[in-house]
Automatic annotation (TrEMBL):
Similarity comment: family membership: Belongs to the RutC family.
Designated name of the protein: RidA/YER057c/UK114 superfamily protein
Organism of origin: uncultured Rubrobacteraceae bacterium
Pfam families: Ribonuc_L-PSP
Superkingdom, natural source: Bacteria
InterPro entries in the record: RutC-like_sf (IPR035959), YjgF/YER057c/UK114 (IPR006175)
CDD domains (alphabetical): YjgF_YER057c_UK114_family (cd00448)
Amino acid sequence: MAVTLVDPEGLPKIEAYRQVSVATGSKQVFIAGQVAWDAEGATVGEGDLAAQVEQCFLNVAAALAGVGGSFDDVAKLTIYAVDWTPDKMPLLMDGIARAYGKLDIAPAPPATLLGISTLDVPDHLVEVEATAVID
């Protein structure tokens, strides 16, 4: 495994993810932002943030598998959420938990959550991009 996830001393322990990833592999993988489209390009979970988050993470996993990787290789995630307010956090976390359960992911890599005004398609509520490092 090319990525090791850690919580260094002096930083708070966040249950949802690790604070730092250390990458030692030789192949960097940059995955474009994934939205809640299925393989045919239809939006999954219209109006349902948790369902869309889950689909985004499943799409990231499919992209990784397509280049010989898995979520174990993810060094960093960036999540863009439309019209973000803190009260949406339980829905976001529910979608992540559902995806992580299906993909058997633990612990989670470092992540950044950004609130944005809109995405390319009005029905999309969230977009997830990833950077991975593969041996």
